[in-house]
Specification:
With 531 residues, the protein is mainly beta. The longest helix is centred in the first third of the chain and has 22 residues, at 2-23.
Length: 531
């Protein structure tokens, strides 16, 4: 037992010794020394800069060693840091939300300057952004100089700068770059702006571009634009208002035609879309008044609103089988369109989808069609017949006239049908809005007794219509139903009692006279109601 106690005592003593040794202060000779710095020549890397000078740190020792003044190049940029040395005066700025700098928001007093150099600093803080449309008022600007500190320029910012011929970016800028006077992202994967003031007949864009930015080539004067095969995305309005554009080939990697992409390209006569395109955006070809042919790929599943509006020379359009919806105004004012085949999968026909297609003579609605806007065929003054597939469960056609499937609604009478008189079936209860508009040959119509409602502008501009008779159940006549019917001289009411116009009672005796009733119908275009 005594031996065990002795061993424990020695163990504790040893532990106490080593603990005290660990806590004892070390001498200076025990401290690790600073790393040895070899003899060297200072080689600077830029740490920061202001409006007066540069500050450098040595790459080896990290010590500040030099203050160097800005060296201005021919573009007014410092050749070392890319700072703007002699910026344009009079521009307008707004302080950023975090008070960390300023954004250029307007041309101000520099609106008539031919060259604008964006400052690097304003009131002691960096200028780091350009607001959308900031220089829209710079109507004389031909050159734009962008310093290194600009980090945010929204796509389409310079779309209204129609005199702009050249954009210069400081080589030190880490976000943007320039090539041949055009603005790109730093890696040149995105073309942000090709200056509209460049008057080259042909634009040949360099390899490596993946995206044509919003409005990037808008208002270009080029007749031919060549895109590299690397392009896979088009921004909104990428080629809009290229009024001289006649030729452009789209790379196979493009899968979407964006909104307004080619709108108002007045000279574009034909275009082949890549085989993989799945959608055409809203207004994509709106106003392409010379477009005569357009090859739509089988991959296409969606065509946006008014995509081909005012393509006045487009004669035919074969829609791919995958299309299910014809959006509003897709072919509105395509006045040369003579032939249109609706695919078997189309389920809906939107507002004015074929509005004012004055050369369209016939159309067949497929069995798949479930909904059709009342005004889908408005203004189709050359239409002679509307046919409906026998299997359709929503609509039916009788002698070229379109009805609801149950026959209770007369939806559309073809304007150019050559018959002069017409009596709808006894099943009809409602005459839809604009149902008989612009009828060229119809002189006489007798509406059956079950008809209770005549829609707005139902017979407007029926230039030959001379007489009409109404059944005993008629209770409503929509606004403008018989406007612009100059030949109408007889309107026979079976029951002339109880009618008013906007709350103003009408004399039954007056309505009992077909001549006076006709005059009222053509001159009083308000809504008619019978109690």
């Amino acid at each position: 037992m005594k031996k065990l106690f002795t061993v424990l005592l020695l163990f504790c003593a040893a532990a106490a010794f080593f603990s005290l040794a660990a806590c004892a202060p070390r001498s200076d000779t025990d401290q690790p020394g600073p790393p040895e710095v070899p003899e060297h020549t200072h080689t600077g890397t830029q740490l920061s800069y202001d409006a007066e000078a540069h500050r450098y740190l040595c790459e080896i020792c990290g010590q500040a060693f030099q203050n160097a003044a800005h060296t201005e190049d021919a573009n007014g940029l410092c050749s070392v840091c890319g700072c703007s040395c002699s910026p344009t005066e009079g521009l307008l700025f707004s302080e950023n939300a975090g008070n960390d700098g300023y954004t250029l928001i307007g041309a101000g007093d520099a609106a008539r300057a031919t060259e604008i150099r964006i400052p690097s600093f304003y009131e002691g803080k960096p200028v780091c952004a350009v607001a959308s449309d900031a220089l829209a008022g710079a109507n004389a600007m031909e050159r734009l100089i962008i310093p290194a500190g600009i980090e945010d320029i929204p796509e389409g910012t310079f779309r209204n700068c129609l005199t702009l011929r050249e954009i210069i970016v400081a080589p030190q800028n880490t976000v943007y770059s320039d090539q041949d006077g055009a603005l790109y992202t730093e890696d040149r994967s995105v073309l942000l702006q090709y200056p509209a003031g460049q008057k080259a007949d042909t634009v040949l864009l360099p390899d490596g571009i993946e995206r044509i930015g919003d409005y990037a080539l808008s208002c270009s004067a080029a007749a031919v634009i060549s895109l590299p095969e690397t392009v896979c995305e088009l921004g909104n309005s990428a080629f809009s208002a290229c009024s001289q554009l006649r030729e452009i080939a789209l790379p196979d990697n493009i899968s979407e035609i964006s909104e307004y992409a080619f709108s108002n390209c007045l000279q574009l006569q034909e275009l082949t879309l890549p085989k993989g395109v799945v959608s055409i955006g809203d207004f994509a070809f709106r106003g392409c008044s010379s477009l005569q042919s357009l090859a739509l790929p089988s991959s296409l599943t969606q065509i946006g609103t008014a995509a081909f509006e005012r393509c006045s020379l487009l004669r035919s359009a074969n829609l791919p089988s995958a299309i299910e919806t014809i959006e509003a105004m897709v072919f509105f004012n395509c006045t040369s369109l003579e032939e249109l085949t609706l695919p078997d999968h189309v389920r809906s026909l939107g507002y004015m989808a074929l509005g004012n297609c004055t050369s369209l003579q016939a159309i067949t609605l497929p069995a798949s069609l479930q909904t059709m806007d009342t005004y889908a065929l408005t203004g189709c003054s050359g239409l002679k017949a509307i046919e409906v597939a026998a299997e359709n469960r929503s609509y039916r056609s009788l002698d070229g006239v379109l009805y609801s499937a149950d026959g209770t609604q007369l939806l559309k009478y073809p304007s150019a049908h050559e018959r002069t008189s017409f009596i709808p079936p006894q099943t009809v209860q409602t005459v839809a809005d604009s149902a008989f508009e612009n009828c060229l040959y119809l002189e006489e119509i007798a509406l059956p007794g079950p008809v209770t409602d005549i829609g707005g502008y139902a017979f407007t501009n029926c230039s030959a219509l001379a007489q009409i008779s109404f059944g005993e159940n008629l209770a409503h006549i929509g606004a403008g139903a018989f406007s612009a019917c100059p030949a109408l001289v007889r309107a026979a009411f079976t029951d002339p009692d109880g009618w008013d116009i906007g709350g103003e009672p009408l004399s039954a005796q007056m309505l009992a006279d077909p001549a006076q009733a006709a005059e009222l119908l053509t001159t009083r275009t308000e809504e008619w109601q019978r109690a």
